[in-house]
């Protein structure tokens, strides 16, 4: 019998790549989407016809329980989150409810259903926050410094408590920044690749940026969904830090993107102080040794390949009118 995977956040970047991987591996893939967001299934493009959508409000515990009881999933991937970190300051409670609340309600539903469903929690390097050691591993203390990181940490602990208390097969992937051509343009990689393409085509002439010295550990989202799946295929549930272990600055990113279309970034990029964030001196960089050793996982796409590919795809999209620039 086919395995069934339930995915929250299916229409996001990771939801797309994960659905693709699971469909290729013979799973029945069901996305849990709030009733008011049914239309967003079009974001799944070529996969929209291959996945099933179950309409459910993620804040409704009873409805989630009914979904789990009815669909009897082999695996649940909890990816749903308002993932743009600065926005979490505008609605800390809403962020907490969607991130922690959804994880708690799903874990409770698995517990009550008495199924052997395996649960993946999408955790984040933001739970490490104000780090005192770099790189970070599974034993690094958690010190989140924004409502998003705090909510992700609460969800992480809730998952851990359910694993210990009820012996559920549940685990967290503590993922560092992962990007792709499907990343929305408010995130820095896509903002830069779209701008480099737009400027090359003469559709815009300036790019306003925040902190060019900020550094991140960036990988390709397609590589990271592979490890989500591998985490649920092991004998014992365990949390893993997932990243490349390599830091690049935002300046490196800008330079790489503009170089790939033969432009001198310094002629087009300006710093807009309203885009600066506080406390950006912490170096969030992964030590993925455990994932390398236990799951035989390592990233396949380099940062350079990723950015070059994103710029090329943005050039094609702009030329074909598939995306338009708002600036
Ligand atoms: O692309 P970002 O907005 O991603 P951020 O805040 O690191 O969060 C992403 O990764 C986390 C870890 O996996 C996730 F938990 C989270 O959900 C999300 O996916 O910003 C990256 C860096 C920051 O240091 C930011 O200050 O880029 C810097 N930056 C500089 N100028 C900018 C800009 N970021 C944005 N979005 N826009 C700018 O103009």
Please name the defining characteristics of this protein:
single chain; Rossmann fold; UDP-galactose 4-epimerase, domain 1; 2 domains; seven-stranded parallel sheet; two-stranded parallel sheet; 9 helices; 15% strand; binds ligand G4F
Number of domains: 2
The tally of helices reads: 9
**Which molecules other than protein and nucleic acid are bound?**
ligand G4F
Q: What topology, given as strand order, has the largest sheet?
A: 3-2-1-4-5-6-11
Going by CATH, the architecture of the largest domain would be 3-Layer(aba) Sandwich
CATH homology superfamily of the largest domain: NAD(P)-binding Rossmann-like Domain
> What is the overall shape?
globular
The secondary structure category is: alpha/beta
**CATH class membership of the largest domain:** Alpha Beta
Question: Helix proportion of residues, in percent?
Answer: 25-40%
Contiguous low-pLDDT stretches (5 residues minimum) are: none
Describe the structure.
By secondary structure, the protein is an alpha/beta fold. It has two domains: 4-175, Rossmann fold (3-Layer(aba) Sandwich); 181-217 and 246-284 and 301-320, UDP-galactose 4-epimerase, domain 1 (Alpha-Beta Complex). Helix content is 38%, strand content 15%. It has nine helices and 13 strands. It has a seven-stranded parallel sheet with strand order 3-2-1-4-5-6-11, sandwiched between helices. α1 packs across α6 and α5 (188-200) packs across α9. It is globular. The mean pLDDT is 96. Ligand G4F binds at residues 83, 85, 124-126, 175-177, 186-188, 191, 209-211, 214, 216, 250, 275, 277, 280.
């Amino acid at each position: 019998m086919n395995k069934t995977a339930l995915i929250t956040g299916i229409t996001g970047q990771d939801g797309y790549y994960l659905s693709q991987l699971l469909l290729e591996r013979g799973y029945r893939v069901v996305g849990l989407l709030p009733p008011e967001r049914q239309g967003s299934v079009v974001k799944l493009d070529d996969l929209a016809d291959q996945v099933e959508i179950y309409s459910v409000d993620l804040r409704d515990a009873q409805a989630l329980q009914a979904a789990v009881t009815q669909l009897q999933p082999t695996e649940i991937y909890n990816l749903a989150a308002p993932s743009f970190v600065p926005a979490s300051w505008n609605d800390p409670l809403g962020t907490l409810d969607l991130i922690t609340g959804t994880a708690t309600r799903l874990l409770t539903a698995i517990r009550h259903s008495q199924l052997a469903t395996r649960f993946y929690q999408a955790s984040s390097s933001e739970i490490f926050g104000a780090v005192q050691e770099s790189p970070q591993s599974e034993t690094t203390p958690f010190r989140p410094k924004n409502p998003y990181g705090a909510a992700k940490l609460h969800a992480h602990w809730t998952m851990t408590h359910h694993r210990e208390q009820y012996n559920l097969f549940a685990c967290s992937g503590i993922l560092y920044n992962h990007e792709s051509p499907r990343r929305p343009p408010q995130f820095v990689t896509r903002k830069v690749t779209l701008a480099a393409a737009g400027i090359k085509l003469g559709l815009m002439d300036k790019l306003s940026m925040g902190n060019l010295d900020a550094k991140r550990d960036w990988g390709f989202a397609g590589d990271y969904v592979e490890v989500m799946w591998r985490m649920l295929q092991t004998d014992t549930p365990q949390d893993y830090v997932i990243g490349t272990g390599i830091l690049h600055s935002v300046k490196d990113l800008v330079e790489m993107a503009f170089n790939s279309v033969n432009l001198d970034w310094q002629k087009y990029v300006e710093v807009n102080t309203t885009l600066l964030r506080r406390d950006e001196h912490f170096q969030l960089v992964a030590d993925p040794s455990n994932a390398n050793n236990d799951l035989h996982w390592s990233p396949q796409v380099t940062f350079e390949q990723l950015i070059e590919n994103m710029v090329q795809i943005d050039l094609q999209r702009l030329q074909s009118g598939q995306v338009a620039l708002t600036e």
